[in-house]
Specification:
This protein is mainly alpha-helical. The longest helix has 11 residues. The protein is globular, with a radius of gyration of 15 Å. The relative contact order is 0.19.
């Protein structure tokens, strides 16, 4: 189960989205069908920040080398400012 936090940061939305993913496929698809189901994650600050680092840890465990995850696109909240210009 994802962790609950009581403080908020600019990354709260990102971590709450990760919590939906961590809750499993059924919950993820349920939130996609009914966005109101996301409210408890946002209101209660249910976070799963650690999910974001699973690929890094798996890569390093398998290869013995730290993963250079620099990509063209960022998963960080607010990084896609162009995508929000009409919002």
């Amino acid at each position: 189960m994802p962790g609950r936090r009581r403080s908020s940061t600019g990354d709260a939305f990102l971590y709450a989205r990760a919590a939906v993913v961590a809750a499993g496929r059924d919950e993820y698809e349920s939130v996609l069908r009914d966005p109101e189901r996301f409210r408890p994650y946002a209101d209660d600050l249910v976070w799963a920040e650690a999910v974001l680092y699973v690929p890094d840890a798996a890569y390093e465990q398998l290869t013995g080398v730290e993963w250079d995850r620099r990509t063209r696109y960022s998963y960080e909240s607010y990084s896609n400012t162009a995508g929000w210009t009409d919002a």
